[in-house]
Structures are given as C-alpha cells and as structure tokens.
C-alpha cells in the first residue's frame, strides 16, 4: 500500500498494475486502503473513468464497501473534471449506503457546483446536508463557499458569508480574505478591499461587523499585504488608502512587516498629481468611479 501510495503521489500509476500483480502472487489480498489509494491516484491524474472502474471492481470482487475517503476522492475527481451528473449520482450512492458526509465532502461538493456555475445548488447542498447530518461549517467550507461566490460574480454574497463566519465565531484564514480582497480589487472596489485588509489585520477603520478579534488573521500573509498595497497604488489610491494603511500598521501593528520596496512605491504614487479618479481615467484603470461601489459595498463607504 505504501508503494502504491508513492506511485500515486509521483504520478506513476503505470507502475501500479505490476505492484498489484506482485501482491496477488504473494497471496496478499488488497484491502479498502489499497483500492482507495489506487482510486485516488487515478483521480489525481485526471483519469476519473479509471477511478470509477476501480470502485466497480472492488464491488464485484470483494465484500468491501467504499468508505468516506473513497467517496470524497472520487467526488473530488468529478469536480476536477466537471462531471456534475456523475458526482451527484455518486453522492446519492454514498448517502444510500449510509456513509455520512463530512466537512470535506461539503467542500468538494462546493467545488463541483462552482465549476458548473451552479452557485445556488452549492448553497442548497451545504444547507441541506449540514442540517441533516448535524455538521458545523468550518473555515474551509466557508472559504470554499466564498471562493465560489467570487468566481461566480456574486461578491456581495461572499461578503455576507464573511459576516456570518465572524458572527458564529469561525475565524477566517488568509485564503478567505485573499478571495474577497482580490475579488473587490478586480471589480474596482478599492475602498472595500482596504476595509477588508484593515479587518484582517485588526486595524481601526474595519467594517463594524468585522471589528472584533475573531475577524483577524494573526499570521497574515505578507505577500497578500504587499500585493494589495501595490494594487491600490496602481489604481491611484496611494495617498488616500495605501499610505494611511501603512501608517496605521506601523503605529498599531509594528510586528507586521511591509516591504521597503512597497513603501517606496507608495511614496512614489503619492507624488502623482490629480485625484484618484483623474489618475485612473488617464491610465485606463478602473478606480473608485463607476461600478467601484456596487451592491454590497455600501457598508464600506464610511
């Protein structure tokens, strides 16, 4: 099993048939872990049909039943290959056989529905399965839902999920804020991105619902911080947003390091003349005008 797992991790599924033949020659019967590892290896290689064949082979040749890990691996393979109908049939088999879903199952189902542009269905599945099986949504499920919202152009819905997380004392992680900050910037909602960054860092000026310790990320990604500051500069908000952010970080969170190169870029951006609207109009970038304040951004204006 360890050798098969090594082959799966290295993408050498071509070696697995020989290992299985060796097992048979030595009278070693495959167990659930054997089948599960082979199945997962095929899914990682993108060969979902071969993974389904392994499941069928196990059902026909043994009395073993697939466990949650096998189902999750195969569901993840369906998500990677955008096989929605096959994934939903598999989920029904899983439930019919009495295998309870886990938080990881929910995350995989979100990915499956998100890639098929079925955001409402993702929310329905999470709500239905979590209620029926008494699952508490963790940070990974919430973050995957938020990522699905951003991917499917439903940023306000993702922001509502962040509020819900904090209300339920589920602490966001770097990826949670990365999805929302990048999503906000991509839509030109620079003030919203800046407020989210303040919430993540625990700075003054965060939205009211996010102004508590649960909303903070205590080991915030330095690369994301510098990336956001530079994006604000590129969009003409060096003086209005980026510089005050750096000043507050130095004063309130001195342990958080802002790259010197980023600080120089902010200072250079402050030397530009004109308002952010004028600068972005000249550069062709989407700043704070137009759709920069879309639905869901009102609470960030103050």
Walk me through the structure.
This protein is an all-alpha fold and 302 residues long. It is built from 16 helices and no strands.
Descriptive terms for the model:
single chain; mainly alpha; 302 residues; elongated
Outline the low-pLDDT stretches.
278-302
Q: What is Rg? A: 24 Å
Strand content: under 5%
- Written as H for each helix and E for each strand, in order along the chain, the element string is HHHHHHHHHHHHHHHH
Number of strands: 0
Number of helices: 16
Which structural category do the helix and sheet elements fall into? mainly alpha
Q: Mean pLDDT score, rounded?
A: 90
Helix fraction bin: 55-70%
Distance from N terminus to C terminus (CA atoms, Å) equals 58 Å
What would the principal axes of the Cα set say about the shape? elongated
Largest sheet: none
Compact description:
This protein is mostly helical.
Write the layout of secondary structure elements.
Layout: H1 2-9, H2 16-25, H3 32-44, H4 48-61, H5 68-80, H6 84-96, H7 103-115, H8 119-132, H9 139-151, H10 155-167, H11 174-186, H12 190-201, H13 222-234, H14 238-252, H15 260-270, H16 276-283
Helix pairs in contact: 1-3, 3-4, 3-5, 5-6, 5-7, 7-8, 7-9, 9-10, 9-11, 10-11, 11-12, 11-13, 12-14, 13-14, 13-15, 14-15
